[in-house]
Design a protein that fits this description.
The complex is a heterodimer of chains A (234) and B (224). By secondary structure, chain A is α/β, with parallel strands linked by helices. Chain A has 8 helices and 10 strands. In chain A, strands 6-7-8-3-9-10 form a 6-stranded mixed β-sheet, with helices on both faces. In chain A, α3 packs across α4. Chain B has 224 residues and is mostly helical. Chain B has 8 helices and no strands. Chain B has helices at 2-22, 25-43, 48-81, 83-89, 94-124, 131-155, 161-188, 193-222. The longest helix of chain B is centred in the N-terminal third of the chain and has 34 residues, at 48-81. Chain B starts with a helix and ends with a helix. In chain B, 47% of the residues are buried. Classes of the chains: A alpha/beta (234), B mainly alpha (224).
């Protein structure tokens, strides 16, 4: 569902990604771990069609990027640092707007279903500007799932979430993976995503420096992860 | 084609709904225009004839600056709060975003013009019962919004977006403003269509070229 080979991205003189290879299969949940500035967000933005690669081959949900970007975007749900919502509008209005853009069939039923799922059904007619950070993140999750994407890209989805909201997010992600959705979660928090992902790719200084299988995804940072990061950071 | 049109319609509706709830943008534009009308009216000590002669210039200068306020809010603020990514992620032609935003900007500018024109009529001794003047307002506003939305998309990705937009926009919109002032002046001063024809032609051509450029290049402008 996600296939990346020899992907590089340059911003001016700075290489943000160097020859990245990555594969996420159907129903697989993979964590992309790394410190701040490692290139996680850049990789996710390229996969979402928000940025163009400098070199390499990127395929998302069977579509080659950037050539088939519009078709790929229809299959991708993206949860970034910002909730990508409109403060002035209610939860209902925000989701109705995105449902129109994605041409979601039976949109109202889908919106009702998602607002119940993320626990915002009772606040659906309030302007989003009054929502807490956790509520915004839950609504952003509903936005990302609205069009039933086959690929989910999540950038630090647990940041600033309370325990209850983080557990809700984990539950939703497990259910989506069981339904066959490919999920890539960028994070620097191994403790949180370690329990979710089947595998972790360690990104440092724009390079995949190690792969951790499920068995090694514990709460404690593995020594070779720390060494790999140190080596990559010089 | 249907999804292209429905995306334009969705963006237009969303912007109007957001403005209806906040009433920030149109209020700011209206207050600005009314203040400028009063400042010019009470500081210029001129007779009625001269007042009518300068009316078109004052009218378009005011609308251009008020329009710039609006452009800064509608697209640059999307960049500021990151919601532009939400639009760019949608599986629609990106030029649909351009047209949706241009129409939303046009709507807000026309609302401000409709509400403030009676004040101009009072202070500058203008007659509003001139279809030609309304045609110039519609054409001129369309041209201004079509170039403004394109440049606002460029500015949205810059840090000093609110400063950058007027610096980029006013030179680019100069042909529109000159043509709109000349055509409006012809109608306000009762000179008729033949005096406004050349300026109207410029507005029509500009109003076709800019949207065509937006259609072709908006995707590249918003691409990271």
């Amino acid at each position: 569902m996600i296939q990346v080979s020899q992907l590089s991205k340059r911003f001016g003189y700075r290489m943000a990604l160097h020859g990245v290879n990555l594969r996420v299969g159907r129903g697989e949940m993979v964590a992309l771990l790394g410190p701040n500035g490692a290139g996680k967000s850049t990789l996710l933005r390229i996969l979402a069609g928000l940025a163009q690669p400098t070199a390499g081959r990127v395929q998302v949900a069977g579509c080659l990027l950037p050539k088939q970007a519009a078709a790929a975007r229809a299959q991708v749900g993206y949860l970034g640092h910002q909730p990508l919502l409109y403060d002035e509008l209610t939860a209902d209005q925000n989701l109705e707007f995105f449902a129109r853009l994605y041409a979601v069939p039976s949109a109202q039923a889908r919106i009702d279903e998602l607002l119940v799922l993320v626990g915002l059904d009772h606040r659906r007619r309030e302007a989003v500007r009054g929502y807490s950070r956790g509520m915004l993140q839950r609504l952003a999750l509903a936005r990302a799932l609205l069009h039933r994407p086959r690929v989910l890209l999540l950038d630090e989805p647990h940041s600033a979430l309370d325990l209850q909201t983080a557990d809700l997010l984990d539950g939703v992600l497990r259910a989506e993976a069981r339904a066959g959705v490919s999920i890539l979660i960028a994070s620097h928090d191994l403790g949180r995503v370690g329990g979710l992902a089947q595998r972790a790719e360690l990104l440092a200084d724009g390079r995949i420096v190690a792969t951790l299988p499920k068995a090694k995804l514990g709460r404690k940072l593995p020594a070779h992860y720390a060494r790999a990061l140190e080596a990559a950071n010089g | 084609m249907a999804s292209f049109v429905s995306a334009i319609w969705a963006i237009l509706r969303k912007d109007i709904a957001a403005e209806w709830r906040s009433r920030q943008l149109v209020t700011a534009m209206l207050v600005f225009v009314v203040l400028v009308i009063f400042i010019f009216a009470f500081t210029l000590d001129i007779d009625t004839l001269t007042r009518r002669q300068i009316a078109a210039g004052v009218l378009w200068t005011t609308f251009a600056f008020a329009g710039t306020l609006g452009l800064n809010r509608t697209l640059a603020s999307e960049g500021e709060r990151g919601s532009l990514d939400g639009l760019l992620l949608a599986p629609v032609e990106r030029s649909a975003i351009y047209f949706g935003k241009t129409l939303a900007n046009l709507f807000f500018m026309l609302v401000v013009e409709i509400f403030t024109l009676p004040l101009y009529a009072v202070f500058y001794d203008m007659s509003l019962a001139q279809p030609g003047l309304w045609l110039v307002l519609l054409l001129g506003s369309w041209c201004f919004c079509s170039v403004g939305t394109l440049l606002a998309a460029m500015a949205a990705q810059a840090r000093s977006r609110e400063l950058l937009l007027p610096v980029l926009l006013l030179p680019m919109a100069l042909p529109v403003l000159v043509a709109a002032v000349r055509a409006s002046s012809a109608f306000v001063n009762g000179l008729g269509l033949e005096y406004a024809q050349a300026s109207l032609n410029i507005l029509v051509v500009y109003g076709l070229i800019m949207p065509a450029l937006g259609f072709m290049f908006f995707d590249f402008i918003v691409e990271e």
